[in-house]
Design goal:
Oligomer: single chain
Strand content: 15-25%
CATH architecture of the domain at 10-186 and 228-256 and 299-313: 3-Layer(aba) Sandwich
CATH class of the domain at 10-186 and 228-256 and 299-313: Alpha Beta
Bound molecules: nicotinamide-adenine-dinucleotide
Order of helices and strands: EHEHEHEHHEHEEHEEEHEEHEHH
Strand order of the largest sheet: 3-2-1-4-5-6-11
Number of strands: 13
Structural class: alpha/beta
CATH superfamily of the domain at 10-186 and 228-256 and 299-313: NAD(P)-binding Rossmann-like Domain
Number of helices: 11
Shape: globular
Largest sheet: 7 strands, parallel
Radius of gyration: 19 Å
């Protein structure tokens, strides 16, 4: 994504934790294109060399292999950094149900280490990946930032704790923070493989192989699917803003429309059939609903629009078209 129009000063040095992951590597790429100096801290737990290999020779890019569970690594990464975009975490609700201890160690203790290191390095602002899972069992739609429910998974707890710690660090130590509650992000480089793969890349990959995707439930569950470039926009806007009322708070990061899984399947088939007409005939399977899944998710993006000037450029249709083109060009075997 070209972030030039967002007026991010190219002289800023920005640390992207989790910079070898799906969202982090896309952020690194955009920042480098803007002329920024970028440090990426990653332990490659779920991140991939291939996401950042093409950046390694860039004079403004530094890769630090390290673990946010290690405070020393966090201190090293924060040296001479102006801003942080903290993406490193173990994602996935099912992963956290299978192994809550590791999710907590990375997402809570690792997060706290990063806050301490950011504070000690006098970093100007700490922008971090929060999550829509923080809305938990709240049934109200659309989701508005100050109205959350009780968490439905260990992962959701970790992401909520992040917000609590960030709030305390801004109040206690004066560290400026911005939390971004991402809603089901999708786009280029999102990993289609593995037990914890997200639904869009997983289904795309299965369709490309003419394998039947399985929907958990009857397909009526809906999500506010958010294209990666909208997420990059919000990360940059969170740093650029000089409005003091816009910081030390959290924002929904979404498009503001919901799509159910049956509709999603229809859109994926439509896009993929342009490359391979046989995909239209691939059958869909229906399984049981998954533990910890909320039936519907839809964000209000009014707060981000009002305080940060958020103006998402991609809806699900235009985002899926971009994403499917990328998967076809890069992953078709
Ligand atoms: P990802 O798994 O592709 O990226 C996470 C990155 O963090 C990986 O590169 C991984 O190797 C790194 N990492 C994990 N543990 C680490 C550790 N101990 N030390 C250093 N690096 C570590 O996932 P993503 O989808 O890019 O998610 C990025 C962030 O956004 C995460 O914080 C996630 O919780 C959050 N988020 C994502 C979504 C989504 O839909 N993808 C939704 C809500 C929130």
């Amino acid at each position: 994504m070209n972030i030039e129009k967002l007026n991010l000063n190219p002289n800023h040095h920005i640390l992207v934790t989790g910079g070898a992951g799906f969202i982090g590597s896309n952020i690194c790429e955009s920042l480098l294109k803007n002329g920024n100096k970028v440090t990426c801290l990653d332990n490659f737990a779920t991140g991939k060399e291939e996401n950042i290999n093409h950046l390694l020779d860039h004079t403004n890019f530094t890769l630090l292999r390290g673990d946010i569970r290690n405070l020393e690594d966090c201190h090293t990464a924060c040296k001479n950094v102006d801003y942080i975009m903290h993406q490193a975490a173990l994602g996935s609700v099912p992963r956290s149900i299978n192994d809550p201890i590791t999710s907590n160690a990375v997402n809570v203790s690792g997060f706290l280490n990063m806050l301490v290191a950011a504070r000690d390095a006098n970093v100007k602002r700490f922008v971090y990946a929060a999550s829509s899972s923080t809305y938990g069992d709240s049934e109200s739609l659309p989701k508005v930032e100050d109205k959350i429910g009780r968490p439905l998974s260990p992962y959701a707890i970790t992401k909520f704790v992040n917000e609590l710690y960030a709030d305390i660090f801004s109040k206690t130590y004066g560290l400026e923070t911005v939390g971004l509650r991402y809603f089901n992000v999708f786009g280029r480089k999102q990993d289609p493989k593995g037990a914890y793969a997200a639904v869009i890349p997983k289904f795309v990959m299965q369709f490309m192989k003419h394998e039947s995707p399985t929907i958990n439930g009857d397909g009526s569950y809906s999500r506010d699917f958010t294209y990666i470039d909208n997420v990059i926009e919000m990360n940059v806007r969170s740093i650029v803003t000089e409005n003091k009322e816009a910081v030390n708070t959290v924002y929904n990061v979404a498009f503001g429309e919901r799509t159910d899984l049956n509709e999603l399947i229809g859109l994926l088939k439509e896009n993929l059939s342009k490359f391979d007409p046989k995909i239209k005939d691939v059958e869909i399977r229906y399984g049981t609903t998954r533990q910890g899944d909320v039936p519907h998710s839809l964000a209000s993006i009014d707060k981000a629009k009002e305080l940060l000037g958020y103006n998402p450029q991609y809806n699900i249709k235009s985002g899926l078209e971009e994403a499917v083109n990328w998967y076809w060009d890069n992953l078709k075997e």
